[in-house]
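Task: complex structure prediction.
Instruction: return structure tokens for all chains below.
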Amino acid sequence: AQTVTQSQPEMSVQEAETVTLSCTYDTSESNYYLFWYKQPPSRQMILVIRQEAYKQQNATENRFSVNFQKAAKSFSLKISDSQLGDTAMYFCAFLEPNAGGTSYGKLTFGQGTILTVHP
Amino acid sequence: NAGVTQTPKFQVLKTGQSMTLQCAQDMNHNSMYWYRQDPGMGLRLIYYSASEGTTDKGEVPNGYNVSRLNKREFSLRLESAAPSQTSVYFCASRKGPGQGDNSPLHFGNGTRLTVT
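Output:
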């Protein structure tokens, strides 16, 4: 069963505008971690932002912020003031605790969203 | 500043051939991972090793084996390659248990494998 779902295969936005990428996940755990990664055409994987499930405050990193809704199991990424260099594939990722809940190991990704920023 | 190093970068195999993808990290990370990336499927976890001496199956382990040779190295073996295993393979590592629960993945540059 798919743990992480990104329902938008492709998105586009005009330069300087704001775009939101959606991600939902499925878990019965209360403690876990969530990440957004960016993969530009170079194929390199770049960490964008991370969120701890025990923190209610939404993470922000410059123009990137998340809307973390724990009850809804939703973790969307908002990109403000979009730039041409933001054009990439974006992946949501979920890090879950191992059996026993004493450590974390399995990290699964969504299918990805291709974002194109137009001038 | 090597980070995560994968070899080879490209490989073409014939159906039925075997090969091992090598991965090494120099960041003293406990956890290492192998993913495959296919169009429309995102990154799918093949196997992971949360710490030296342990390995666990991910979402798509069939047709693959792994070896956590030591803390630095985590290899992926295809015993009898099939065209369905044509993909881009990524190795990654993170701090893992005892080093930082929220530590992100650090990725290698990927291996493009074609099975004909």
